[in-house]
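can u do me a favor
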């Protein structure tokens, strides 16, 4: 009996041992992976890895962006340095040429009757004259500048002092069969800003970077504060039949008539062909600036843009003693 019990216990013990031995086997193979300790370990490891990748990616992205912005900024600075240098060089060259070949003749009746080589300014030219006001990137408009505007017949606004000559030019063109339209005139800073933003985003939509778009636009649309349109002294004029402001415009009969006759009314093609490096603007056959009949005729005769004329007026201007 005792031997039987012993053997039963032996059997029980050996069953239990077998069960105990089998237990880990069941854990490893029987339990599902989902929800196991190993599973959670792997999830945590994966999350840590994901976080690491995200952080590294963010750091790399912003570093690259920073480097590109820095590059853009350096390019803008370089462009500005080049422009300033070119302007200074031009001024020096002009002064040297004038000093070499020119002489100032002091007339009894005029402050600035000047002879410089073959150049002469045969009329009273005062640098402070409102008609010679120079507006460009290097000479932004004084924010205090005020203008008395008057409407033209087609609802545009210009400096009231130029309305008569402007409408006379348009009327005379009509008599010769050219139908002219003023498509742009006075613009305040806000309007110029809007146009600038629109043009920049149009170029960016075509794939240009902000930097490239900005410099592309700057050649065709003066930056806010440096546009002649703020003065009311400039207008964009096109023929009624073709109103696009593009290269084709210059070939239109209306543009040809205007280029030939505008000086008779005191206007000049402000951003002329061949003067792009001086004006800083692309050729615009449609942009006319009022400078008065004398200056317009003089500038046309000697092929001077307003920057050149303005330099001459400044350079040769000698206030009479006692004034
Ligand atoms: Zn214009």
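np, heres the sequence
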């Amino acid at each position: 009996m005792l031997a039987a019990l012993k053997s039963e216990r032996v059997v029980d013990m050996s069953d239990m041992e077998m069960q105990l031995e089998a237990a880990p086997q069941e854990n490893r193979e029987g339990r599902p992976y989902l929800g196991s300790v190993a599973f959670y370990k792997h999830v945590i490891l994966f999350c840590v890895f994901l976080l690491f990748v995200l952080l590294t990616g963010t750091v790399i992205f912003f570093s690259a962006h920073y480097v590109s912005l820095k590059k853009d900024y350096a390019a803008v600075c370089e462009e500005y340095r080049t422009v300033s240098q070119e302007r200074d060089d031009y001024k020096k060259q002009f002064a040297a040429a004038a000093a070499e070949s020119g002489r100032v003749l002091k007339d009894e009746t005029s402050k600035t009757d000047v002879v410089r080589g073959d150049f002469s300014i045969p009329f009273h030219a005062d640098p402070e004259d409102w008609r010679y006001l120079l507006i460009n990137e290097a000479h932004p408009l004084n924010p205090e500048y005020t203008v008395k505007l008057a409407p033209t017949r087609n609802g545009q606004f210009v400096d009231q002092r130029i309305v008569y000559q402007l409408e006379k030019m348009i009327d005379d063109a009509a008599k010769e069969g050219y139908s002219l339209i003023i498509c742009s005139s006075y613009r305040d800073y806000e309007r110029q800003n809007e146009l600038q933003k629109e043009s920049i985003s149009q170029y960016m939509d075509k794939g240009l970077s902000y930097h490239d778009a900005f410099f592309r636009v700057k050649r065709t649309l003066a930056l806010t504060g440096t546009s002649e349109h703020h003065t009311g002294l400039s207008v964009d004029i096109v023929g009624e039949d073709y109103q696009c402001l593009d290269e084709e415009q210059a070939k239109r009969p209306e543009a040809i008539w205007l280029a030939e006759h505008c000086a008779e009314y005191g206007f000049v093609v402000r951003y002329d062909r061949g003067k792009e490096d001086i004006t800083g603007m692309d050729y615009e056959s449609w942009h006319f600036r009022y400078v008065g009949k004398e200056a317009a005729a003089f500038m046309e005769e000697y092929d001077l843009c307003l920057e050149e004329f303005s330099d001459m007026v400044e350079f040769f201007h000698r206030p009479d003693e006692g004034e």
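The chain has three domains: 1-31, 32-100, 133-316. hope that helps!!
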